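Weekly modeling sync, notes
Attendees: S.R. (lead), two postdocs, one rotation student

Agenda item 3: backlog of single-chain predictions. S.R. asked that every request posted to the team notebook include the full sequence so nobody has to chase files. The rotation student volunteered to paste the first one in as an example of the format we agreed on. Action items at the bottom.

Example entry:
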Amino acid sequence: METFLGLDALVLARIQFGFTVAFHFIFPAFSIGLASYLAVLNAIYLRNGDKAYLRLFNYWVKIFAISFAMGVVSGIVMSYQFGTNWSVFSDRAGPVIGPLMAYEVLTAFFLEAGFLGIMLFGRDKVGNKLHMVATLMVAVGTAISATWILSVNSWMHTPAGFVMGENGQFLPDDWLAVIFSPSFPYRLAHTLTAAYLTTAFIVGGVGAWHLLKGRRDNSGVRTMFSMAMWMAAVVAPLQIVLGHEHGLNTYEYQPNKVLAMEGHFESYDDGIPLILFGIPDQEAGEMRYELSIPRIGGPILGKGWDASMEGLDAVPRSEEPPVGIVFWSFRVMVAIGMLMLGVGAWSLWSRWRGDLYYDTWLHRASLVMAPSGLVAVLAGWITTEVGRQPYTIYGEMRTAESMSPLGAQAVGGSLIAFIVIYFAVFGAGIVYLLRLMSKPPEVAETPESEPGPIRTGGITPGTTPDATPAE
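Predicted structure, as returned to the notebook:
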């Protein structure tokens, strides 16, 4: 078998698609939440006339425009691989996924593209009200885009509403069943919430950076940090609940994935443990150096304390996903979720003490956590997609059957080209975004709308420093 750097064409094609999807996913994960944040800022400005929110809108809209553009470009490149590396999959699944992706373009992308220019440049030309409509349409468009794409992805995980054609094609039989496949509501809620959390921690990290630089007298800095911490405090616990429900749905329809996530190589007759850590040895079919809590795994999976469960030892080896990758990526996602919950609770405590803008340790933690949402969504995506293996369409079409008839040298060469070009082009874009974020929002020319005198010493617990309307 032809190989490239010791890897065959199938593995290289999977790596290439994983690489391009990972690069693409970080931009929509940020821009979906940022579009909604901009709509909120604009609405508050129109409601109370406080120009601090207008200045903050102008600050973040530039960052949004660049992130949106990089997301579009990386998405186009990614989609070409359906025809190059995965043409067999495209041919067989095209009657189902083709229309869904076309609907995404016809609804969401056209909506975003049609109103983006007005949002970016049209306030002085069309007026505040129509500009608000355009901003809202862009935010709605990003959510609709995610909805269609997640409908496609969910169908691949829990296929429904189709019949098999004589030539092996998946033919739609019930479009509502196709669109609203069993995992779709859970995946949509979990992914959109992840996008909002991702944006909150990036905005909070930027605010924390400027607070650590001593820019507490900048109302934009204070407002962005306060709003981000509110979002973290409210949405992080909600995301944990949604993630749990998504996990129960996954266990119902993709039990092998959950067994890999939890590291359950063995079957259990009297209580299921919760494995916290360990080193999966898939070849030996065991978890080495296991650290677990007895019996608690049953209630977590919706079973009883004394429940029984078949493990991966009851699954044919050919049906097992790569346990090590799924096991650790799931733990990275969960660990980051717990840290987000902790930062949100910390911010509530600091806010109650009236110390939100002076708690330097909270600011340092928020700065460190700024990219955590991006890491979490990538870890979650790896858990979901690698856990689906060895199938492209779960239970119906294997990944090995989906690939184009390509040689390893061709796939490997294009993979190296992708890596070099992506890091050069998108790396430059990310550096520019960081440069924009390193600059503080503009301040008012007159002091009327700025905060009052800023305390420079300690604060007595229970007292509150001067505040912005966002608090």
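Discussion: group reviewed the output briefly. Residues 240 and 337 are 7 Å apart (CA to CA).
Action items: rotation student to repeat for the remaining queue; S.R. to check formatting next week.
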